[in-house]
Amino acid sequence: GPPIPLYAPVEDGTKDNVFISKSYDATSHFETTTDDVRDIYRRITGKELVVEKLREGIQVAAE
């Protein structure tokens, strides 16, 4: 079939505080999705997302 279109936000969200992610694509292991999450976090907070020292089985937030 025809290729599925990919969409990206026109603005970066810093003017109106509306932060929109890009479309999902066909990459495996959510590679580009992870990059997009890191980008959105940086645009919102002005800081890089740090996910080091997280291990399986460690709860980082209260449920």
From TrEMBL:
Superkingdom of source: Eukaryota
MF terms (GO), sorted A to Z: GDP-dissociation inhibitor activity
Pfam families tied to this protein: GDI
Any one Gene Ontology BP term: small GTPase-mediated signal transduction
SUPFAM superfamilies, alphabetized: FAD/NAD(P)-binding domain
Family: Belongs to the Rab GDI family.
Record's protein name: Rab GDP-dissociation inhibitor
Species of origin: Madurella mycetomatis
